[in-house]
Amino acid sequence: MGKFLSILFCILISNSILTLAQDCNTYTFTSNAIFATCVSLPVQNSHLHWNYHQTNGTVDMAYRHTGVSASTWVAWGLNLDRTGMAGTQALVALQNSTGERAYTSSVDDYNTQLQESRLSFEVRNLRAERVNGDVVIYATLVLPSGRTSFNQVWQSGPVTNGAPGRHAMNSENRNSVGTVDFVTGALAGGGGGGNVLHRRNVSLF
Ligand SMILES: *[C@@H]1O[C@H](CO)[C@@H](O)[C@H](O)[C@H]1NC(C)=O
Ligand SMILES: *[C@@H]1O[C@H](CO)[C@@H](O)[C@H](O)[C@H]1NC(C)=O
Fold first, then answer.
1. Looking at residue 94, what is its pLDDT?
2. pLDDT score at 191
């Protein structure tokens, strides 16, 4: 029994080491893209990987949300002027009949249906893929000039009849907000802008 337990323990330990190792810096992208910076976001099993180019203020990035079912949408975005959901300039991914669809959505208010729309800044090379239960959104962001630190929001919710539906309001959903600095790699928050999200119980994003 003792031996069995210690073997089990070893398996559990090595599994969690493997999981941790794959979480951020050592994750291998199918594109073989190498990102200089990677941060694990505090909730919702998500990671943000990027290269920031100071010369032209662009960010090549990948948002990776792990353990996503086929009927789940994921989204990540920057909120330039506010905290929380309203105003977020989002990248959205959801599975359609041909694969993982990626598009942009400017989340103007709490009644959003996460419909496709242009963002206030330019986004290039947007695509998404699903690999071993992870959804990865790739994009190049042309950051608003002179800024490298932003409020960020990330989220996931159900897909119903091909359309994104309202996300749950668990603490993970309410705390998936904070700030990101693309130069220093510093993250802050995780709850900061969530109060607004919490109070309005009608939000989709
Ligand atoms: C921005 O600069 C990087 C690094 O020099 C370069 O690889 C990239 O192509 C540039 N992007 C644009 C949109 O000019
Ligand atoms: C599914 O997503 C792909 C990739 O974005 C897109 O090219 C295609 O038009 C989408 N199909 C439907 C039916 O929406």
1. 97
2. 45
- Ligand 2 contact via 101 beta carbon (within 6 Å): yes
Say how far apart CA 63 and CA 8 lie, in whole Å.
Answer: 33
Check residue 137 and give its pLDDT: 98
* Ligand 2 proximity of 130 Cβ (cutoff 6 Å): no
Whether the CB-CB separation of 197 and 84 falls below 8 Å is answered with yes
Annotate 89-149 with DSSP letters as a single string: EEEEEEEETTEEEEEEEE--STT--------SS-EEEEEEEEETTEEEEEEEEEPPTT--E
pLDDT in tens, 18-39: 444 457 878 999 989 999 999 9
Inform me whether the pLDDT recorded for 170 exceeds 70.
Answer: yes
Ligand 2: residue of 94, 98, 115, 127 to mutate (most ligand atoms within 8 A of CB) is 98
Separation between Cα atoms, residue 25 and residue 17, nearest integer Å: 13
Q: Which stretches of 46-88 are assigned E, i.e. beta strand?
A: 46-53, 58-65, 72-79
124 and 56 Cβ atoms separated by less than 8 Å: no
* pLDDT at residue 2, as a whole number: 54
Decide if pLDDT at 68 tops 80: yes
Distance of CA 20 to CAs 45, 56, 93, Å?
Answer: 11, 33, 24
